[in-house]
Amino acid sequence: MPMKRAKFTTPLVEDPTTGKTVPSPPNGDKEVGYVVSTQDYIVIVEGIPSARPYNIIRTKTGGRAIISAFEKDRVEALMLDSERPQPGDYFELSDVELRIPLNVDLLGRMINPLGTALDGKAGLPPGGEAIDLDIVAPGIDGRAAVTEQFYTGITVVDTLLPIGKGQRELIMCEPRSGKEQFFLDVILSQKNQNRICIYAAIGRSELEVKRFSEDIQTYGAAPYTVIIAATSSESAPMIQIAPSIAAALAENYRNQGKHVLLILDDLSTHAKYSREIALLANRIPGRESYPADIFYQHSSIVERAGNFNDHYGAGSITLLPTIETTIENFTGLIPTNVMSMTDGHILFSANLRAQGIYPAIESARSVTRVGRQTQSFIHKVLSDRIRLLLAEYHELERYGRFGSELSAETQLKIRRGKVVEELLKQEPMTPISAEVQIVMLSLVFTGFFDKQDVEFVRTYKTIIITTIQSGMYKTLVEAAKKVKLDELITLLTNQLKPLQEACAKPIPAST
Fold it and tell me: For the domain 106-131+144-374, what is the CATH superfamily, name and number?
């Protein structure tokens, strides 16, 4: 597209910096530049000699743009508002950087990346702390080992795919695989964990974000949750800066000694908007037409998470970046890039979700590289036994399809494998503590289910969990992390009577 040259009609003066003749600024004490070409939300501005990366410049009507690149005597800026300046319009240098009022209580609020309230509540005060979009992640001297488990309240995650506090675990999912409900459940499970949750909606639809915000309010998670929304109706530059703003907000709470859960939903959409900006700016495209620095853009954000020492307030940022794409594109550039910079991944399947399974996690194809070291000893041993049982079950099930006669031992392993798969399923909005998870899964090895079918487990699972959580098993639940697994199984075997009695009662029609 040919460059649209400015047609100046205002009085001309000589720019002392460049020596060129430019229109006189509207106010002699302000540093200004003039638009020489435009390309949708991208503007090329001559002047503003003291501009720095990510400075904010404003038009005469208050439209904001963020400086994104430099040439010899001009700068490239991205419009953050809907305004589209024309050649000849002028910009003036605004605040040094983006600012968010971090001194204000943002918990329970939904804001956009510029700090504008989107929840219908009172607006935020102007000014605030400067946000550095190009901050360098802390080095090894500011970090601490990841030694404590981050509990999600979801059995299959806490047992088979544990996440450590400060870990970066990628959520890979297909559309309509239930990740929104998963995020909501994880946030709700932090209610009594003294954690701050930050959910960044990156290019999501307004309807999705509004529904998620309403659920956060309805189920009581608002007092410890902040939503940063750069929806699909926002401009591409606003969506591009959203992850950096969310990370900066997380770092602010971390420096106060808080433990933060940061969810970036999702980075594949962020990459698409970054590609759009780069192509519109005529930058040389890389693989799959993404900008050459897309790996840096994502890695510089991901590396800001972790567990930190006293240099950074002894806080932590546990990061759940999301890649939403189809199963055929899981080996594409963006999924593999983000996979390489995280500490594992959890794979969600739309096929499992369509079968009514929640959470729709394919545990056999998911990985956690750090979380296993954070589990309690009994939970780790139980996890190994469950994994081995599931592996044997799937292998024996395949052999059983040939119609060969199966031994009693083989039939027992298959029955127990089916029971475990059913126990790992979980209803939404029903977090389960780690101790109850341990006791519930240990039941499989007591023989409690050996004469029952899967329908029995499906029918009485809620009753079983409720009974374990009741006072009758209080001592056993408290001991769940203090004894060895074999000791727990023995203790549990001797106390099966309350569970047997609870499961012998008929289920009310409403249950």
Answer: P-loop containing nucleotide triphosphate hydrolases (3.40.50.300)
Cβ neighbours around 360 below 10 Å, total: 24
Strand stretches in 123-267, DSSP E: 129-131, 149-150, 163-164, 170-173, 195-202, 225-230, 259-265
**Poorest-pLDDT segment among 9-13, 292-296, 464-468:** 9-13
From first CA to last CA, the distance across the chain in angstroms is: 65
- Determine the Cα–Cα distance for residues 291 and 279; give it in Å rounded to an integer: 8
Nearest residue to 173 via CA among 350, 435, 307: 350
Residues contacting 396, CB < 8 A, separation 6+: 406, 410, 413, 414, 417
Number of other residues whose CB lies within 10 A of the CB of residue 331: 9
The full set of domain ranges for the chain reads 12-97, 106-131+144-374, 377-504
| Residue entry with tokens 């506090």 | 165
Does residue 167 register a pLDDT over 90?
Answer: yes
**Known catalytic membership, residue 401:** no
Note the pLDDT tens digit of each residue in 306-358.
999 999 989 999 999 999 998 878 888 999 999 999 999 999 999 999 999 99
Q: Which listed residue (99, 143, 369, 385) is catalytic?
A: 369
- Per-residue pLDDT averaged across 449-460, rounded? 91
pLDDT bucket at 133, cuts 50 / 70 / 90: confident
The CATH T-level fold of domain 12-97 is Elongation Factor Tu (Ef-tu); domain 3 (2.40.30)
Which residues make Cβ contacts (< 8 Å) with residue 170, sequence separation at least 6? 320, 321, 322, 323, 338, 339, 342, 344, 345, 346
Q: Tell me which H or E stretch contains 367.
A: strand 367-368
* 397-436 as b/e: b if 16+ CB within 10 A: eeeeeeeeeeeeebeebbbbbbbbbbbbbbeeeebbbbbb
Those residues whose C-beta lies under 8 Å from the C-beta of residue 336, and which sit 6 or more positions away, are none
pLDDT interval class at 203 (50, 70, 90) = very high
pLDDT of residue 23 exceeding 60, the answer is no
Query: Which ranges of 231-323 would DSSP assign to H, the alpha helix?
Result: 236-255, 267-280, 294-302
Most confident of 113-127, 237-251, 400-414: 237-251
